[in-house]
Every structure is written in C-alpha cells, then in structure tokens.
Recover the amino acids of this structure.
DNA sequence: ATTATCTATAGATCTATAGATAATGC
DNA sequence: ATTATCTATAGATCTATAGATAATGC
C-alpha cells in the first residue's frame, strides 16, 4: 500500500486542499478527520502520518486558504489598474461569494472558529490577515499612508462583517441588503 | 424530585441563560447539553422536558441574547442623548467586549455558527439583527432616512467584522488596531 | 530496511431516550 | 394522577493509536 515520496507529498497536498474547503464550509468542529480523508480519497488511519493532530491541519489549511486569497486579490488588483478597490469590493461582496463559503474568504467563514482556537491558529490568522490589509491599503484612496492603512483595516472589518452577517441571515431580505449597503458605503470612499 | 411549575419555569430560564453565555463563548457545537445543564445546576436528562432538541435551545437562547443586546443598546442611547452613536461605538468596540464573548454580541460570537445552522436559527438571527440596525439608524447622522438606513446596515457590518477579527487575531498587535481603526472610521461619519 | 497506507479499535464525548422517583396540584 | 427531575444507557461520532501490509528506495 506504500506509495512514492512524490505521491505521498501529493496526497498531503490533497488533504490540505480538501480540509481548506470543508473547514470553510462546515467549521473546524463541523467536519471530522475521517471525512476529510475520504474527500482526499484516502483512509482515516493514514492521516497521522501526515499531520501531528487535527489542529495541525487546521493551522496549515487555514494558512493555505489565506495565502490563496492574497494571491487572488493581487491578481484582481492587477487586472483592474484603473480602480482596483472597486474590483475588490464587487468581488468580495457578491452573492456568489456569499453562497459558496467553501471556496471563499477564510475570515468570513472561520473568524469565530479561529477566535475559539489556540494561539497557533490565531497567529496563523493574524499572519494571513496582514497581506490582505496591505493589498487594500495600496488600492484605497486616502491622504496619508496612515490614513490609507486605517481605512484598509476598517474596510476589511466591513467586508468580513457584511459577508458573515449576510450568511447568518441568508434566506431573508436583510442578506442582500447587507451586501449592497456595505458595497455602497465602502465605494463612497472612492467617490470622495 | 418534582418541583413546582414556578420553579420549573425558573429552571427553564436558567438553562436559556446558561446556554446563551456558553454558546457565545464556545460556539453551538463547542458545548454539550450536559455541560449547559450542569451550569444551570440541573442534570442532563432533565433537558428534554424543557426543549425539543438542542437546536430548539440554540434558537431560543440566541433570541434572548439578541433581545438583551437591543435592550442594552436602547438604554445606552438614552443615557447619551447628545451623541448616542459615539456611545454605541465606544461600547461595542472596547477591549472589554472583545475579551468577554460570553457576555457580548451574539453576531460577533456566533455569526459563522448561525450561517451553518438551519432555517429556524437563521430566521432568529435575522429577527434579532433588525432592531439593532433600527437603533443604529436612529442614532446615525445622514441626509435621508434611506441614507441613514444604509449607513446603519454598513456600520453593523463594520462593528461585527471588527470584533470578530479582533478576536480571531487576539494576542497580536492587529487585534487592538482593528478595534481602533473601525472606531475611527465609523466615528468619522459623525464628524462630517 | 524503510515507510506510506490500510484495517481495526480504544477511549472519550455527544444527543436523545427509557424508566424510576418523588413532590406538586387537582 | 400528573409531571419535573433524576439515573442510566443506547447508539452515533470523533480523535488518535496499534499493528499489519505492501511498495519504495537504499
């Protein structure tokens, strides 16, 4: 049953990707090691050869989810050089993003779970958040660097809060209103 | 072991209060029925005489947590008639609020959990969110009623997002910065 | 010989129920 | 007689480990 080192590394990769999607969709506690391994087409017992514990996978898969987000944001910003901030807002606050948490922002999907997790996971979230704020700060209009930074941090809060709340009340009119109001108010900063 | 109807109603009350705090602190899945009953000084088995299921308690305790928040906000607004909006911001975005989720906002503590819950819970969250937005809309400056409403919805997203993220990265410098930046940017609306 | 994966299971925990108990309220 | 609570447990699920298996890589 043994596979080559190359294959093993690929398996490890598949586990991290499967976990990234399943954790965002169901929460850290909402999915078990066995189901993640099944999604990666492996058996339960093989898990502990790749990771020290479930929490180890939580930290690693979260890091990857956040790094992917930063890469996506960078690409999005580059494809809209005239108004990168507007492009980020439209992308983040779309109903499509709201309706597919498994492929979306880790902060909006797992912020509460991270808050209840240990130091290692919270540190991973802090290190994943910083680049997103940097990208926002470079895209956002503002007088000084400090002002742009402050606007970027607050905009990040608005984005994550709006998506979180839109999902929490999904199925009611408040859900769409939340995305639209956040979009309108954040975009107002560009029009100033 | 039977108690009077009055005592039974009081027990039910205690269960809902204990659940309200424990769910906010540990998440819907992070605490069990047995621990909630222990916190209410009752035994595990008695639970199902009071509630149809754990999800039933989730919905009821969430409703109460949110109704209490609305009552607190109303009181806070009344005690600061000159600048109710500033009072709400200072209260919500305080380190004290961040550091005690069990007594704080249900949306910032359980938004992700609600998003993964069933329709009944999500509807409860929508019905609990509306009054908070109404209070914000009455406190916030703005040209038209529609503008104030939109600002209130977006401000709610910023508040919840900032607290959620501040908790997710708790223990790093970003945590305080998140509270301060959100406070500064939201308060800017008052100074306009 | 080493090791990636598999099967099987230990041990803990969780929701929910069954049946006993004992105090209330008709 | 009714019923609020209790003890005990069924049945499911979850993390983690033990030991077997078989293919890789020295």
């Amino acid at each position: 049953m043994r596979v080559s080192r190359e294959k093993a590394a690929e398996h490890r990769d598949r586990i991290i990707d499967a976990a990234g999607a399943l954790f965002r969709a169901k929460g850290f506690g909402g999915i078990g090691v066995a189901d993640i391994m099944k999604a990666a087409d492996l058996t339960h017992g093989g898990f502990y050869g790749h990771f020290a514990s479930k929490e180890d996978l939580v930290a690693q898969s979260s890091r990857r989810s956040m790094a992917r987000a930063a890469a996506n944001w960078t690409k999005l910003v580059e494809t809209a050089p005239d108004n990168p901030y507007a492009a980020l807002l439209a992308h983040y606050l779309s109903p499509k993003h709201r309706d597919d948490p498994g492929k979306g922002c880790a902060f909006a999907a797992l912020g509460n779970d991270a808050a209840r997790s240990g130091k290692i996971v919270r540190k991973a979230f802090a290190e994943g958040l910083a680049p997103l704020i940097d990208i926002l700060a470079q895209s956002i209009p503002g007088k000084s660097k400090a002002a742009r930074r402050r606007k970027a941090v607050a905009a990040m809060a608005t984005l994550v809060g709006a998506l979180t709340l839109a999902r929490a009340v999904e199925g009611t009119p408040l859900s769409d209103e939340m995305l639209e109001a956040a979009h309108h108010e954040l975009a107002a900063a560009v029009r100033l």
Remarks:
- Chain A touches chain B through 51 residues (CB under 8 Å).
- Residues 1-5, 32-34, 44-45, 47-48, 53-54 of chain A lie near DNA strand D (CB under 10 Å from a C1').
- Residues 54-79 of chain A form the longest helix (26 residues).
- The mean pLDDT of chain A is 96.
